Amino acid sequence: MGPATTPRVARTLGVAALAVAFLAGCTSHTESGDARLPQAASWSSVTGGPSNSGRAHGSVSQTPELLWSRTLGAPAIGVASSDGIGSSFQATISERGCNLFSLSADDGRKRWCTRLPTDGPRITATVDGRGSLFVPMFGGVGAVASEGENRWFLPTRGTPTTVTLLNNRHLLVISHQGAAKVVNAHTGLDASPELRLAGRIGTDDRGYGLPWCGIGERGCPVPGPAAVDTSSATAYVTVWTPDADEPELVAVRYNADDSAAVDGALDVLWRAPLADGRLGVPAVLSNDRNEVYVHSRDGDLAAYSAVDGSRLWSVPVGYRPDLPPALLPDGTLVTGGRTTTMWKGTDDDHDDDAGPSPVVAVRGEDGSGRELWRRDDLQQLTNPAATEDGRVLVAVRTDGVEDVPGIAVHVLDGGSGETLHRIEVPAAGGPVSGLSIDSDGRIMLTTGLGAVYVFD
């Protein structure tokens, strides 16, 4: 009998086989005009959209109630995304079978599912306006057609944490190891040279640094998705170069002549030190695209100028979120959960700070920031989700039944923090993978155990 195959080798072989399968499929060197669309006008990626605002493209019912629920048969990872035309997408981690599901938003029926090498702190498919997917996975990103067919596979140095459509032709990909490039969204072919935001990593191991991505420690150079201004093709991302004393907030821009069939390039505009360190929480871009919001190591939420990276203001929130704030239309930021809901690996150095994780709203005004309201009675379990009419939804821990903690969703007034409506999630417990809202106002909550609940 030959030697046993290690999990890492098996996963590497799986990636290689998947790449062959993708490349043998529908890859084309022919441009398709406007056949590809920008990101869907729905919850189109892990943080809602390119700017990481955590805000839906619409509102929700005044009193939403359970529409349907189902289990996926495996632990879920990441937030459910949606295409705005009737489908939602959820990734799971499993030893066999499907781990990317396309579900009917109306009734939860499985439209299709496929097996992909998903791995990373948060895996959510990015969706374009026709329901085509761009899926981050171990060692690359794959393009999947709206009906589930594999289209192309792009190998990357590490697992992509940023997968964002800049326009109907260009896809920005940044891996957790800091390898950034722009590719043609239709073919998967390079549209820029690779830019190494964290310098050269001294290993060829695609998994190097992944265990630290959830907590944003220096072992993971780029733990979270960049906040992207698609109008100027500018991305803002936190980077911790190996061996550097402190991380940085980095602004990069894609420059290309769209009137010519030539490659462009990613250029670094500026790098600003984050002297207080940073968490694995994605940066968020302000509504006017003038400010970038980043959580520091102690949890304080700070604003930086999008022009030059200068620090503008900072507000203490009293805890360390694991997830980004949601941005309301009036500029209010509502902080995310500090949880015991994500396994962060054996080197997690803040297990002792597992809670509480209140809900805190802050706003920047006249060059400074201030706290607007705080709900210390709510122990938030995942990312908040804002609406266009100024409300914010949070998933929180409840007492449950028979001493088994449960989960509830609160609809809060963004101006005061008052609970407007409360939904008890039936038979739900454990960690929460994510909370999102599609363009029709359906609320999707996925537990870490792989149960999906939709409210309307």
Automatic annotation (TrEMBL):
Task: Report the Pfam families cross-referenced here.
Answer: PQQ_2 (PF13360)
Q: Signal: is it a keyword of this entry? A: yes
Superkingdom of the source species: Bacteria
Keywords for this protein: Signal
Q: Output the InterPro entries linked to this UniProt entry.
A: PQQ_rpt_dom (IPR002372), Quinoprotein_ADH-like_sf (IPR011047), WD40/YVTN_repeat-like_dom_sf (IPR015943)
Keyword Signal assigned to the entry: answer is yes
- UniProt-recorded name of the protein: PQQ-binding-like beta-propeller repeat protein
